[in-house]
């Protein structure tokens, strides 16, 4: 056996062919409603491949920061944020592209948002993933993360039922630095903040302990089958978020779809949600009465899962297991509920609130990460209780 053969397990062709056939069929189905949804489905697939091949997760990056002072994942996130900000700014400043309006991920800064981000951070470490991390690991066949995803959805529905109460807590409203100070000054201010964060972490003794770019083992087969360097995925995810903004008219988000999926399941089981504050009308009420294949976030999430599955088959790593130790199972359930409930209160997760929020120069994106990191720190301390 050659070294290259040993490094690359066989491609799992039966799984790959089934995934490609199903994805192609869904692409054709989505095409019946126009060009937007199939284009976003394709972007989602590309996101899933990028997330999987670089194991680009937020949860592990924060855990390594706290336990090992390894900021490799954080450095990649800073690059991703800076790239996305520079791509977003001209589009958001113009306000229109390709004949339709565009809007950034701008949300209120409130007590409920901060609390939601905090418990979301705890859920990240107990569940073992964030919004994007749960999607790509569940999509690649991790049975425990499928369980986390189920309870993520349930937690989102639970949060939607309580959201009217939470919205009455103190809030300073939505603040966009780009709109308040101008896009040039806002970009300079945020880029400086990213640079100061990196320098501050290095001053505290943190280091990049993993490779951020291609090493000497790069080959075209590596490009197809992984692993990818963190910087490559960071740049691609910024690009794909920008493409989402151009095509959909809004930035990338994930967790709204989880709440919707749980809501539709509840209705299918006979639960009348139309009398609740969150579901009584508007966007949520309309989405509840339509197919999820007409919901942009749902279509992109499905694409991410397809992309992760395809990437895992190319890497030869689809091997789902069914045995989950009880402590880990409990952590998956509890963590999933915290993720879903927290995301509902915090106007999104690490993608919709943090990544897209900061790229849109929204103050809530910066506040979100402060409270989410505090939750992650507590979550790391709780992990041993569940033998994680």
Account of the protein in words:
It is a single chain. The chain is built from 18 helices and 4 strands. By secondary structure, it is an all-alpha fold. The chain has one domain (3-386). Strands 1-2 form a two-stranded antiparallel sheet. Strand 1 (96-97) and strand 2 form a beta hairpin. The two termini are 35 Å apart. Mean pLDDT is 93; it is low at 1-6.
Stretches with pLDDT under 50, minimum 5 residues: 1-6
Radius of gyration: 20 Å
Mean pLDDT: 93
Strand order of the largest sheet: 1-2
Number of helices: 18
Query: CA-to-CA gap between the ends?
Result: 35 Å
- Helix- and strand-based class? mainly alpha
The biggest sheet, with number of strands, parallel, antiparallel or mixed sense and barrel status, is: 2 strands, antiparallel
Number of domains: 1
**Spatial shape:** globular
Strand share of the residues? under 5%
Helix and strand element order = HHHHHEEEHHHEHHHHHHHHHH
How many beta-strand segments? Answer: 4
Fraction of helical residues:
55-70%
